[in-house]
Amino acid sequence: MTSTRSVQSAANGYADDARGLASQALDSTREFANDAFDRAGARFRDLRSGMKDMANRGASSMGEYAQATTRYIADEPVKSALIAAAIGAAVAGLVLALRSSGKNRY
Q: Which residues form the domain of 104?
């Protein structure tokens, strides 16, 4: 009987050790996941901040281009109208060329 009790006692001790190790593994996994989540959140915030800065710079640049274009049109109205007409003709020609080449494919 003594040997059965000692085996049972040893088995209980091993089971307690296994539970303790499993609990430690679970705690370290939880801590690792929390750290990874925190790092991902920080990267996302940095990315979002960078995108806001880039969007602000882009909007500022577009405003500057619009002002420069407005000044050019005011200074050179005839030249501006001719440039716009040439661009419109080029776009229309491109559209017509693409439409006619599409009909010949089949």
A: 76-106
* Opening angle at CA 30, ends 24 and 31, nearest 5: 90
Successive 10-residue mean pLDDT values, the chain, 106 residues:
76 84 89 91 89 90 92 93 95 92 61
**pTM for the predicted model, two decimal places:** 0.43
**Angstrom distances, CA of residue 8 to CA of 1, 5, 13, 14, 17:** 11, 5, 9, 10, 14
Q: Does residue 32 sit in the same domain as residue 59?
A: yes
